[in-house]
């Protein structure tokens, strides 16, 4: 069943590369990351670099801390050892949100990369793809092509959000452009001196961005090398049912 309480208002989506909770001040401080996440007041948050790459891939954040200090549920992905995510990607949803399906995507490239497709009842039904793309444009384009192949925006409203790692405002995102409108809410990297809009939100044709921005607070300017981005979107009513 769709989450009817969300059908008549915009959905607030956010993305945050938390850099394993290590701040630009050199401090590992998961508490301030959790505080920032709570302050986003989002329906869905894509979180990148949420797990360490040590053996067992433990989470950089405590699931208990998220449960106790935020209004989010962690979407279970059950894949990366003791971590919270899949290839470092996690998805948080407003508590009580109906999760219809979770699909783990392994993306092509020289370094291990992945994405999570999470189908939700929000807005009458929406697919959220959370990802952290690679460092080279050639591999990013191959990864975006794999993501595009894993969704059906004609059948269901779809959103791709995360750290796209693309510095150009005009190039590098071609695999999505025919079916998605790509938004950069603002300059999100480097947190100490924001100069690039690496974190983006791509919306299928039936999803409209109504507002968006970058979170710049005393905490967020120090907590990671990225700043959180957010967007409010409206899903066209024809997707509801």
List low-confidence stretches: 1-6
Mean pLDDT: 92
State which percent range the strand residues make up: 25-35%
User: Which fold name corresponds to the CATH topology?
Assistant: Deoxyribonuclease I, Chain A
CATH class designation: Alpha Beta
- Give the biggest beta sheet: 6 strands, mixed
What is the element string, with H for helices and E for strands?
A: EHEHEEEEEHEHEEEHE
- How would you sum up the global shape? globular
CATH architecture: 4-Layer Sandwich
- Main sheet: which strands, in order across? 3-4-2-1-12-11
**How many beta strands in the DSSP annotation?**
12
Number of domains: 1
Helix residue percentage: 10-25%
- Going by helix content, strand content and strand pairing, the class is alpha+beta
Integer-rounded radius of gyration: 16 Å
The number of helical runs is 5
Which tags fit this structure?
single chain, 241 residues, alpha+beta, six-stranded mixed β-sheet, 16% helix, globular
Q: How would you describe this protein?
A:
The protein is α+β, with helices and mostly antiparallel strands and 241 residues long. It has one domain (4-239): Endonuclease/exonuclease/phosphatase (Deoxyribonuclease I, Chain A). Helix content is 16%, strand content 32%. Helix 1 links the parallel strand 1 (11-17) and strand 2 (44-48). Residues 1-6 have low confidence and may be disordered.
Quick rundown:
The chain has one domain: Endonuclease/exonuclease/phosphatase (Deoxyribonuclease I, Chain A). It is built from 5 helices and 12 strands.
């Amino acid at each position: 069943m769709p989450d009817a309480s969300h059908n008549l208002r915009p959905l607030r989506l956010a993305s945050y590369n938390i850099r394993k909770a290590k701040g630009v001040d050199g401090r590992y401080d998961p508490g301030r990351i959790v505080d920032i996440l709570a302050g986003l007041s989002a329906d869905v948050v894509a979180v990148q670099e949420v797990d360490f790459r040590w053996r067992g891939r433990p989470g950089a954040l405590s699931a208990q801390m998220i449960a106790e200090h935020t209004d989010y549920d962690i979407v279970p992905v059950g894949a990366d050892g003791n971590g919270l995510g899949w290839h470092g990607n996690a998805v948080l949803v407003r508590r009580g949100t109906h999760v219809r399906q979770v699909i783990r995507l392994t993306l092509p490239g020289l370094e291990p990369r992945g994405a999570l497709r999470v189908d939700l009842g929000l807005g009458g039904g929406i697919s959220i793809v959370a990802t952290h793309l690679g460092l080279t444009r050639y591999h990013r384009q191959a990864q975006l092509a794999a993501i595009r192949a894993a969704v059906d925006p004609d059948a269901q409203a779809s959103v791709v959000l995360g750290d796209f790692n693309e510095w150009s405002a005009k190039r590098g995102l071609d695999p999505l452009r025919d079916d998605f409108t790509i938004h950069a809410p603002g300059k999100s990297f480097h947190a100490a001196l924001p100069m690039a809009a690496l974190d983006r939100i791509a919306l299928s044709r039936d999803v409209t961005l109504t507002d968006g921005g970058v979170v710049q607070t005393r905490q967020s300017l120090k907590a990671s090398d990225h700043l959180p981005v957010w967007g409010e979107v409206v899903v066209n009513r024809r997707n509801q049912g």
